[in-house]
Amino acid sequence: MPNTSALAQAAPFSESERDAVYKAIYTRRDVRDQFLPEPLPNEVLLRLLDAAHHAPSVGFVQPWNFIVIRSSADRERIWKAFSGANEEAAAMFSGERQSTYQSLKLEGIRKAPVNICVTCDRTRGGDVVLGRTHNKSMDLYSTVCAIQNLWLAARAEGVGMGWVSIFHDADLKRILAIPDRIEIVGYLCLGYVDQLYERPELEVKGWNQRALLDDLIFDGKWQGDP
């Protein structure tokens, strides 16, 4: 029998509370270069990390770690690693697509006052983890949930966040002294912003547009490509 003393009421939020949750979801943006130089107070950063730490995790193993990078010298080293990978990425596109890619301003690493590397320790919890017995990627998915928690909390705090994915993991591991067994899941740039795009930047700049939800919902079984 469950310990009923450990249970809490599951009443719905008030209308204003519910609206605030949806506002954070719908106005969250990936910030690339709009960061202000204003420092991010430690108490705000700790609230964001605590929100991340309260994400669901498979087997409750909490596989994440958060490497907080504030040093401008360290961020410059990381930016150089990013810059090399970004040139490689640009070469993968051609024509107008390449020009659009190169026009995107990706300066968050140097402009944001705080960078965070989010990692996943895939050995945490031992060889057999509840909920990961048949899907070995569940610890990675759990860590992504932590990043989403942080992102939504940042939006509620008026803090912008950008997720940088254009790296060679080996470069980041060398710079940040990350052991080989540790998986890098996300590199995040955080800082205050005074403006956000009303729609995702890549939609505004014509890279892609949001798919229609109706095209992505299948009833009962797979119904072909949307």
TrEMBL record:
The organism of origin for this protein: Octadecabacter arcticus 238
EC category: oxidoreductase
GO molecular-function term, one example from the UniProt record: nucleotide binding
Highest taxon of the lineage: Bacteria
EC number(s) reported in the record: 1.13.11.79
Record family assignment: Belongs to the BluB family.
Domain Nitroreductase: 25-192
Keyword Cytoplasm listed: no
Gene: bluB
Protein keywords: Cobalamin biosynthesis, Flavoprotein, FMN, NAD, NADP, Nucleotide-binding, Oxidoreductase
Name of this protein: 5,6-dimethylbenzimidazole synthase
